Amino acid sequence: MIDRNPYTISFGKIPTRFISRSSIIDSITDAIDSEVPDEQAFKLTGIRGTGKTVTLTAIERYFRKREEWIVIGVRPDADIMTEITSNLYSAVPALTKFIDANLNLSAFGIGLNLSRKSPVTSMDYALKTLLLELKKEEKRLLITIDEARKTKGIVDFIQEFQILIREELPIYLVVAGLYEDIESIENTDGLTFFLRATKFEMTPLNITYIRSDYQKTLGIPYEEAEKMAFMTKGYAFAYQVLGKYVWDSEEKRLTDDVLLKFDEVLSDKVYKKIWSELAPKDKYFLSFIVKKDKMEASELLEMTKQNHSAWSIPRARLKEKGIIDVETRGVISIKLPRFREFVENDQV
Asked: SS3 for 279-329, per residue?
């Protein structure tokens, strides 16, 4: 084993040990990097702790190694077009010279104040001009937005993005965000293009991969690694938390103390937030669903004395938030590890 704990419970920090979303990363990088890409925008979505940031970072790193690519990560609450242009000016020498020689962007605090040229008043025009220059230089621009949510900056940028790609300019977009935040952007009037962009869901990690990693990294027996892997239910954050505390334990196994810390971290960093955002009706149904690992929908309705109509909307919301699995017709199960214990001990 290595000497330093390779697992982390800090959101946004890339851990030393993690299981890559290779299929998603390859699908996006191959599509974007093709000679004539069919799509220029992609979405990553899932609940908190499913590996969206790690996956987005892996995509950024792939393209940053390519000489013909420029990668810019922007904040969702920024004036995105201005931020992109400012980054292009400071990070790309050829564009720095081009802007200083041809564009007066002083109104936006970018470049030199060229008194002989009229100030550019439209950032749309400035960005389009720079992309035309990039196209001449045979370079391409990838924009990434983590923790994307509906803001004026994102709505304005996506509307402009649609125009830019129609004009065959070399700009590409990958955003990552929570289910409800991505859906909020998708449902905004005038953003049909974004709604149709390919969306990748952060599904559970492969249990076999988790078991193999635990066995190798922690130096524990197959049976112990398998027990731990199944306990995570493939939830990426749980995989990190359990690995961290077993690594820190003297016994290097799943003890009561490790389990207590596991539950505390999941509760404090994820589950309390998820619970606080649920509608009262969602919480009511969940208080019954958690009583079993799997439950027939008919049994749930009998227990709650509700009908299918009353259950349909909470069902859709809980599924969309990644809390329940209803892929098997008529069967409901909880997707999150030890969520039953959280609900029963902390909330009911």
From this structure: CHHHHHHHHHHCCCCEEEHHHHHHHHCCCHHHHHHHHHHHHHCCCEECCCC
